[in-house]
Design goal:
Blueprint (H helix, E strand, L loop, with lengths): L3 H7 L3 E5 L25 E2 L2 E2 L3 H10 L4 E5 L4 H18 L4 E6 L5 H10 L3 E4 L13 H11 L3 E8 L5 H7 L6 E5 L7 H6 L15 H9 L5 E4 L1 H20 L5 E2 L5 E6 L3 H6 L7 E3 L4 E3 L1 H9 L6 E6 L7 E7 L1
Parallel strand pairs: 1-4, 4-5, 5-6, 6-7, 7-8, 8-9
Antiparallel strand pairs: 1-2, 2-3, 10-11, 11-13, 11-14, 12-13, 14-15
Helix pairs in contact: 3-4
Length: about 325
């Protein structure tokens, strides 16, 4: 790994904080944002819609976050929110909580200073595609040096649309610390516009675009400070490992944690008194308003032996909303 932020992401330890959905200066055809994120003013911590500062802190604690990745939008409101949440996270977790910002604008010295004073560690710039190859001598070169002077680690993070040797030049010149290249992907939010541009999905793949990966690796892949982040790795690291961290933190004694980071337990509408009659230890079940949740293997065994009539095995995400993945009836 080439940056602390990437190392934390690989462990599933990076909370993703989306602060704003409007971009005043850009309309990228490859923008992956879906309807619930694009052109909205909502804030999200991972998949959780934020209503208060406590929601952000609760989400960070829920996954035992090592750091936070901040993204979303370009206007002043996005900057103000970013600084607010940086200060919030620093106050709660201290300076060891690593933070990085992904941004599509340069911002200028005053904003770099504000971000640094608020606690930002690393800033990753995403210049407009049409300027790739002609960034030297522009504000995009200047901001790299300004960011460093203000105490930030400057870097690039770009979509893997095509190879561009100029990013390697910035690395060799010492202007940027690293360049993170994300595998080019199609999503629900950009699929139509991507197809209009002639891009197609890679065969047998849910999101990766065909043909771009090989071209980029040929030109940029050998540089020691270029990291190519595949869509498969992002799914495994940013999502699955994050879920596992959550699951370990929130699981009850009788919950099973799967390899995908989901929780599995049993559920039945049997009268709770029946569990007392059967002598079931209290650590193996919990009573809810209109049902009982219990170790799935114990519920299965009790139904097979005729002690209970029916129930189901529930698999759900360990996220705040507890979205159910699958229900398996037992009778």
């Amino acid at each position: 790994m080439i940056s602390r932020g990437c190392e934390q992401c690989a462990k599933g330890g990076k909370m993703v904080l989306f602060v704003y959905g409007y971009c005043d200066q850009r309309d990228c055809f490859y923008c992956p944002l879906g309807e619930n994120r694009k052109n909205v003013t909502d804030v999200y911590a991972n998949e959780r819609r934020v209503e208060s500062d406590d929601d952000v802190l609760e989400e960070a604690h829920r996954m035992d976050a090592l750091g936070t990745s901040i993204t979303g939008g370009e206007p002043q409101e996005a900057l103000d929110r970013t600084c607010h949440y940086l200060e919030l996270l620093t106050d709660e977790f201290g300076e060891d909580h690593h933070t990085h910002l992904y941004t599509g604008i340069t911002g200028g010295r005053e904003n770099m200073r504000r971000l640094s004073e608020a606690g930002l560690d690393e800033i990753r710039f995403h210049p407009p595609l049409e300027q790739w190859g002609d960034l030297h001598g522009t504000e995009w070169e200047e901001i790299l040096y300004i960011a460093r002077e203000e105490g930030l680690t400057p870097a690039f993070e770009i979509p893997g649309i095509r190879p561009e040797a100029e990013f390697l030049e910035f690395l060799d010149e010492g202007a940027a610390d690293f360049c993170n290249v994300n595998e080019f992907e199609m999503s629900q939010g950009n699929y139509r516009r991507m197809q209009e541009k002639g891009y197609e999905l890679k065969e047998d793949h849910m999101s990766a675009v065909d043909g771009t990966r090989e071209e980029i690796l040929e030109v940029m892949g050998d540089h020691e400070r270029v990291y190519f982040c595949t869509s498969v790795f992002k799914d495994a690291a940013q999502h699955r490992r994050r879920l596992k961290r959550m699951a370990r933190n929130v699981r009850r004694e009788f919950d099973d944690v799967t390899d995908d980071g989901t929780l599995v337990y049993g559920k039945t509408h049997t009268d709770p008194d029946r569990f007392v009659e059967l002598g079931v230890p209290e650590e193996f079940y919990t009573i809810k308003t209109n049902h009982v949740e219990v170790a799935w293997w114990l519920l299965e065994e009790m139904i097979e032996e005729g002690d209970l009539e029916d129930g189901e095995i529930v698999e759900q995400y360990p996220s705040y909303d507890g979205q159910v993945v699958e229900r398996t009836p037992l009778a």
